[in-house]
């Protein structure tokens, strides 16, 4: 599936192999990686050995990882968003994003995330979507709250040893598009 999304200021399309340079550049910024790996970048080799394949694992699904650009043709690369099976429960979808520092503080994380939540509830008929962040990542937690997500608790990340994350989620009934779908 070649799912794309357009927001007021962004265009999202599935992550492609052609995005490799942009992905490596994004992860090279220690501030971008601060709450992910303590500032340690993912190298080109990391992407070639498996990260890129993992990001592209759902390209045949109506969800996955999406590269974000300022417009569909020759737009500036902003980062990526994902709507993928949750690391906590593979039966629900998880929302996430990673944006270039130049894109921070402009409401783009909220804008792209809302678009994917609309898709999750309005098209994919999901009941609940979750997200997680380090408890000290106040900017990402603020985005989750703006989206109407509710704090569930702090849990050990199932894929990263000894990492505690704050988990949030939103039920379809709490999402603005729910009224048009007759949500529970």
Structural class by SSE content: alpha+beta
Order of helices and strands: EEHHHEEEHEHEE
Number of helices: 5
How much of the residues is beta strand, in percent? 25-35%
Determine the mean pLDDT: 92
Low-confidence stretches: 179-184
Strand count: 8
Q: What is the CA–CA distance across the termini?
A: 28 Å
**How many whole angstroms does the radius of gyration measure?**
16 Å
Structural shape: globular
Sheet with the most strands? 8 strands, mixed
Task: Trace the largest sheet across and list its strands.
Answer: 1-2-3-4-5-6-8-7
Describe the protein in words.
The chain is 26% helix and 27% strand. The protein is of the alpha+beta class. It has an eight-stranded mixed β-sheet with strand order 1-2-3-4-5-6-8-7, sandwiched between helices. Helix 4 links the parallel strand 5 (93-99) and strand 6 (128-133). The longest helix has 15 residues, at 108-122. The relative contact order is 0.14. The model is unreliable at 179-184 (pLDDT under 50).
